[in-house]
Amino acid sequence: MIKVSIIGSGNVAQQLITTFQNLEKSGSEIELVQVFSRKKESLTHLLHSEQIISDLDDLQEVDLYLIAISDDAIESLSGELPFKNRLVAHTSGSMPLTIVNDNNRKGVFYPLQTFTKGIAVDFKQIPICLEAENPTDYQVLNRVAKIISDKVYAINSDQRKALHVAAVFVNNFTNHLFAIGNEICTENQIPFEILKPLMEETVQKAQTLSPEEAQTGPAIRNDQKTIAAHEAFLTNKNQLKLYKILTQSIQENGKKL
Amino acid sequence: MIKVSIIGSGNVAQQLITTFQNLEKSGSEIELVQVFSRKKESLTHLLHSEQIISDLDDLQEVDLYLIAISDDAIESLSGELPFKNRLVAHTSGSMPLTIVNDNNRKGVFYPLQTFTKGIAVDFKQIPICLEAENPTDYQVLNRVAKIISDKVYAINSDQRKALHVAAVFVNNFTNHLFAIGNEICTENQIPFEILKPLMEETVQKAQTLSPEEAQTGPAIRNDQKTIAAHEAFLTNKNQLKLYKILTQSIQENGKKL
């Protein structure tokens, strides 16, 4: 058995708790021992009260502590842990391995996905990015990760920083373009769902081909007539600004990307 | 039976030909009569030679002519048709109903999807946007559309123009952000496939919630520290410019969208 405890009660913590619990029921080799949260009540819908602790001194010895709390709090919390030389991994995409306090052995266990509170995810399909200070610790992280996911990657701190920025482009910014699309639909009494198959195919095509090969539309084929018509159509200043800048970026970089 | 002929040999024309042929085999009420192409050889892999014509005068009388050619050519080609008062529909997202020559009854039959040459699509999942001058013609378009797709919408020319612009945002521009993500991954020896589940979830979440509710990331939570770290990381000028503008747009409009 691999004994794991989780520190945190937010979105990622709760998704991990649920996943570990389901795995325990089906007899996996992971045992979720304790979960630390300053506010016990935020976890009582998921765990027996005796599994939830709100004092770090109550943490039992386990093989892996997973810190799933906000980025800013990782450094100080890892410094408060009342033990030494145990494996402590954070789950953040934007923090380096070294943010974990020197008292313990450092690791990163970063699930690359956007989580929605209350909506369960299938962890099997979520890439987990791992980093550790030494091969033995890496193997512990790797064993846990492979039990919960089919997609496990060794990603160092520099790569993870890059990955996090790339994720902002393909998730946060893409979602914002979806919001603009929704706004245009709403303004014209068009159901946004009509765009869903196109949105899904955009993802599939970018992965089957590459985004560079998959690029279509007036910008890449330099169709000035359509571009002018679209710009004339867009009376919303922000929509027009984004249209112009993204069109320009595709024209200047779309082919050489 | 509904008799249909197609004018054109490009991507959309070929997808429609294949779909109609498969439906004929399974005994649907659509009969694909002829396909017009100036270059017969571009269709010989799909059709018997006698079904392909390269002279408009050879067009037989059918219930519906579908013009699937480039936007710029629709007006002049529809003016060359050697008959009157028949139902002629184009398949373009960016052209109005009125672009079809007055000699015939005008219609629009616009499948909203990004097609890739040689990759067959499941038309059942592709929204088809219809418009006609009168209810009788609309019914003909509607019967054909419902045979090939589960998603049929009445969309007038103004709405279709808006939809086409929205599609540029959720497809062309989104794909460009994927290209930037791929570029960042490549520069840091990260496989782009690692981002695929996130890209897929971004689409699902924007449709399950709404894109406005689904917005996450440093911009919407005004996390200046992470934004500054990302901006310091981005040495590529174009990447940095897009990062700043999209971050600003989310901050200014993300919540009220």
TrEMBL record, chains A, B:
Q: The DUF2520 domain covers which part of the protein?
A: 126-250
Top-rank taxon of the source lineage equals: Bacteria
A Pfam family that the UniProt record links to this protein: DUF2520
Transmembrane residue ranges: none
Xref: PANTHER family: CONSERVED HYPOTHETICAL ALANINE AND LEUCINE RICH PROTEIN
List the protein's name. Answer: DUF2520 domain-containing protein
Which species is listed as the source? Flavobacterium zubiriense
